């Protein structure tokens, strides 16, 4: 097999680095700070910096890097903006971080076809700024201003997924450099196809382990004629979850439906200067025509009332709406303010929506029993929620306590037919949970695919699964 | 490699057949008629019957069949209802057709989660009959009453795809027997996941070449509170296509938008006793609340009028609506009535919607120039259309003429950034078009995956691509 299981020798790395510097000049960086920043992610997992960081300008330069690394069996770690959460960007075997932040071309926008073609370094906010003049938008919103390439890699989703789906639903086609240096195109620009294996969706969520994505064709949507947003408190999590289930089940086309538990509400009130009732709340958003969103709002208000929730308060002015969603997006930072000086351990699970209330309730009970602080926010329309545990990783007992909480959370999600990650991905942090989740046959099939496409294991090794069972 | 490139010997087949008969009794059938019926599809491709047909009752029996065949390197062809169109079910190397029509259990319906778990032999109509009492439905509708397993295999879509997506968007998880006899589960029941490679979508559309699907978890939808349908004539195809584009672009959530050209309208009028104007028409359907569908209808009528179409006639009564869609579904049979005694050569392509009018116009010109009869129907909201060419395959000149027309159609679709198949799949009929469409790197990647998962090439060999470039 020749699988890579250890770090390349210092000689190999220094020869490769020299060659990369000769070729890329100051676009090949080896300073400690830049290397650490590229291994570093928004995570509690220890930093494992790459040996060098290269900033290519185009697909041909990526091919060169892949060939130079491939010949020497040196790992390649594709890098977008570094906002991933499970150690996806760490370099446990060293290697070269391929930072695509110079690749920000929006190659084409096709308004009639509701699609666009972009390079991987474009961030979602940059794309949406560009699209505004066309009256179009790209809905996937994981919170962070992630790069489109990174969002492909982790199969990102976020607050809009309940209505618009995840990256798997919104990538029409990809171009990628394979481990052998060949450039693959996974599909044409047609909106649907039955032509062969779905390589597009094999690449989406593969976390850089099968190739470096160099071009992405995305579905777009017309900016809604009308948007309305609002906040609705509930007596408890169960009532909020039940309201969500009822809204989804009756076909209410809600664009966003986000749960914040009372701990998260308290944090957001303090951090974002809001005055929400300190109870579980749902943040909602509806897209449609003026008449449509009014009808949807009315219907949701009725559902909420039926379940003891409310009053449902509408943010009709765009600035109030922005303030709400900014508070939601700043939830991560707000959490930190609850215990200054420590970083949150952020995790996510996803369960069938009928199990959501139970899963959250049991999790909150466990958090309390362990004496921890851990606000919950959730994309509840999908059964997906996040736990942000505040603890000091330098205190061994705290770390052990958090790890036990997180393992328990995933076991609970598995028991409820759920997944260890709805949207963050596996990276390094969740590798051990994949086999309990999917079984040996699934893991072995993934390994077979990885070995077939990347026989020398140069693409982001040490992520998702180990090559040996 | 040990790749299968020729038919197993008669001795191997007869020994295997004996063993299968011993094990499965009269659920292993070798009569000429049944074998031919299982190779036979709704296609012009010559019949290549399997050596035997087995009707397993459950996943364990499928494992036994796969092991018995695998040990002898005998091909396995999974069979649903036989409604595929591109020779997917033919047995060019002989082997065993695994007919799942005994596997019709609806294992679970989870109304709160809007999902269900079914065996592969359940047909879409059987499923929807069962779901009606829950107020739920499964939207994917390829016309034929296909099995869910077959719809997974070909990545089916159909009239509702513009609103509800295709099979890739509506399968949450699969269980399948792999070529090595292991049973793989591709995902949990959660609505979204970022846990590892997307094996679900790798299996969807793999046409039985990677395993036999034994269990499917599907997304469901609440039956719409209100449905309205209607017909709108247009002066020409371009106006109809432009109205479609405008409807999609303005975010009109149309559930179905189907084009019939004037030739198809004539056929449907005759066959289904309608009296539509003999012009290109759009059949439309809207799902939503009473107020919502009325608003949508009004908006579409305005769009149509702006483009010189109309009048837009509504079928408000359920029986009129049924009659319309029955006529649409019977389009294939109606076509035959245009030239009794010959079978239609049915094909489909899909292009970006902005190119749809051009693609159809050029195709119609080619049909006329060749003196052929070939009605067009299309799922135009997706840029997908079907051509049904009426010709006698026993007349060599006619056959050559049709083949040239179909090749030209696919070249045209490729030139317009489209695909050789939007929903029928590749099977045998479109194998040669896959490499021009996706390039060598994509085909080689598919081959690597196939060889890794099915090293002896026992799963539906001779479909989608050849193992050697």
Q: What's the oligomerization state?
A: homodimer
SS element count, helices of chain A: 17
Please give the most extensive interface between any two protein chains, plus how many residues each contributes: A-B, 95 and 95 residues
How can the largest sheet of chain A be summarized? 7 strands, antiparallel
Q: Order of strands side by side in the largest beta sheet of chain A?
A: 15-12-14-13-17-18-16
- Which CATH class of the largest domain in chain A applies here? Alpha Beta
Task: Provide the number of structural domains of chain A.
Answer: 4
What is the mean pLDDT of chain A? 94
CATH topology of the largest domain in chain A: Uridine Diphospho-n-acetylenolpyruvylglucosamine Reductase, domain 3
How big is the Rg of chain A?
22 Å
CATH 2nd-level architecture of the largest domain in chain A: 2-Layer Sandwich
What's the count of strands of chain A?
18
Strand residue percentage of chain A? 15-25%
Globally, the shape of chain A reads globular
Q: Which percent bin holds the helix content of chain A?
A: 25-40%
Structural class of chain A: alpha+beta
């Amino acid at each position: 097999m020749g699988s890579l299981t250890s770090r390349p020798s210092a000689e190999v790395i220094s020869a490769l680095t020299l060659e990369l510097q000769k070729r890329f000049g100051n676009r090949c960086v080896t300073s400690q700070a830049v290397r650490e920043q590229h291994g570093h992610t928004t995570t509690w997992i220890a930093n494992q910096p790459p040996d060098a960081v290269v900033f290519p300008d185009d697909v041909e330069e990526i091919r060169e890097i892949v060939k130079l690394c491939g010949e020497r069996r040196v790992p390649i770690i594709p890098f977008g903006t570094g906002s991933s959460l499970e150690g996806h960007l760490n370099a446990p075997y060293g290697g070269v971080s391929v930072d695509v932040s110079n690749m920000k071309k929006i190659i084409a926008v096709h308004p009639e076809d509701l699609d666009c073609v972009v390079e991987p370094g474009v961030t979602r906010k940059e794309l949406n700024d560009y699209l505004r003049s066309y009256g179009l938008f790209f809905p996937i919103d994981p919170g962070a201003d992630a790069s489109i390439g990174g969002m492909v890699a982790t199969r990102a989703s976020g607050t809009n997924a309940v209505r618009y789906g995840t990256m798997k639903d919104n990538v029409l086609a990809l171009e990628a450099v394979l481990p052998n240096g060949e450039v693959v195109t996974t599909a044409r620009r047609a909106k649907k196809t039955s032509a062969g294996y779905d390589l597009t969706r094999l690449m989406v969520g593969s976390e850089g382990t099968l190739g470096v994505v160099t071009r992405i064709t995305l579905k777009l949507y017309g900016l809604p004629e009308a948007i309305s947003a609002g906040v609705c408190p509930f007596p408890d999590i169960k009532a909020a979850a039940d309201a969500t289930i009822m809204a989804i089940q009756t076909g209410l086309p809600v664009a966003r439906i986000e749960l914040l538990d009372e701990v998260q509400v308290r944090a957001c009130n303090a951090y974002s200067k809001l005055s929400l009732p300190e109870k579980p709340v749902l943040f909602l958003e509806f897209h449609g025509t003026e008449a449509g969103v009014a009808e949807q709002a009315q219907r949701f208000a009725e559902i909420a009332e039926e379940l003891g929730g409310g009053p449902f308060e509408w943010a009709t002015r765009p600035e109030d709406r922005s303030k709400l969603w900014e508070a939601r997006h700043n939830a991560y930072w707000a959490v930190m303010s609850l215990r200054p000086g420590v970083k949150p351990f952020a995790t996510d699970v996803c369960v069938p929506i009928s199990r959501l209330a139970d899963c959250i309730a049991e999790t909150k009970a466990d958090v309390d029993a362990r004496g921890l602080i851990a606000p919950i926010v959730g994309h509840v329309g999908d059964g997906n929620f996040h736990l942000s545990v505040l603890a000091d990783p330098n205190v061994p007992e705290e770390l052990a306590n958090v790890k036990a909480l997180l393992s328990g959370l995933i076991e609970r999600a598995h028991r409820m037919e759920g997944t260890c990650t709805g949207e963050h991905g596996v990276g390094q942090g969740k590798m051990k949970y994949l086999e309990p989740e999917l079984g040996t046959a699934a893991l072995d099939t993934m390994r077979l695919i990885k070995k077939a496409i990347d026989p020398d294991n140069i693409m982001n090794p040490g992520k998702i699964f180990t090559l040996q069972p």
